[in-house]
């Protein structure tokens, strides 16, 4: 019926498209070919009269019997040819009538009862709901657990966080991408400044610069995420102390690292100038400079740099380090440690629960759409079946009229030929009365002209069958309309019920999430579970 249809409609109604009647019975298959199919018997009237005169001259004995056995050979030939036409027409029409009866039987659908149809619709709808029951239960349990965890967190740290909601970081990948970008940017800038200080050129400078940049960025992220967040926002004093220590160490390490790189590049610049003056530029390498000498040269004047390149390295490194600290502090997760995690967990559980509920809604929507399509298809097919049954009966009536016309034409010829034969026979007998004497009397069957009988062609049976089929179709149409009206009301009730449930659940979840249920600052675990 449809590519995707309801299961309960597989055995109800018209299961296939209604095709027009195509009676393949042809007159030639029943011996009616050429002129014979038009009712022409093929006998010449003049020849028939000549045969009648010959039969009269043969002095056929008189008889009182009026039977076909007493007919002449010519009359029997005429009757036989006319009877073959009538038999062929009768067989042709009986075959057509059988095709019409079979067609009506195929177009007659099974009886449809509204009560049974409604129960079948509800049964399959409950199966759709049952299939999603496990997913709904799991989503509800996981969401309830996430709500409980969120409420417990708010209950433990409520005096610190108050009513603020966490800054939910959904695009952590974007933050990572920014960190990688600034790391590459710093590495590329450092590589340009280091490429003249060693024999490997730009490639060697890239390797050294990216290594320094990666350490700088990672150190900044750790300082912001585990140092600044914990030191400024953690409710536990011990964790705040630890965060402060991490923050101090991170800031100190990051600043010292960038100053070391700047002083190292300054030392490289000094070495390049000295090697150029001494003529030993080919033997110079930045790796010949001892890091300990650079660290010793940083103090006591740590900002005493002589090269603009070193100053550029210092400015670039500190900028990247500051951006990494900010990204770690504010962009990866919520500033309050742990709050963003439990909030995101509850939010994901809520979204999953909503997704499952929407999936159920979509499944039911698809199911109801299929039900509507089934009803529309059945209504159109019932109407089409009713129309095709009437057309089939009209076709049968048309063929009967054609058969009646052909049979009547053949009967007229039969009667006309018999009359012509008998009149010619009687006149010839009267002319030969003196010669034939007592044998001149005409046979008794000449006193009455037998009128050929046409086939009955009665189609009461087909008409009764068609009326019964049309009655069943009308009853089904009424049942379909009643059930379709019920379906629309049922769909509205289901949608209203789902909307009210969604609204109620959404309100309760918002109350739980915001911690404002019944005017209280926090919601109990039991209320969170009920929501």
TrEMBL record:
Keyword Transferase set for record: no
Domain of life: Bacteria
Coiled-coil stretches: 379-413
Membrane-spanning segments: 176-194, 206-226, 238-260, 272-290, 302-326
Alphabetically ordered keywords of this record: Coiled coil, Membrane, Transmembrane, Transmembrane helix
This protein's name: Transmembrane protein
UniProt organism field: Hyphomonas oceanitis SCH89
Lineage: Bacteria, Pseudomonadati, Pseudomonadota, Alphaproteobacteria, Hyphomonadales
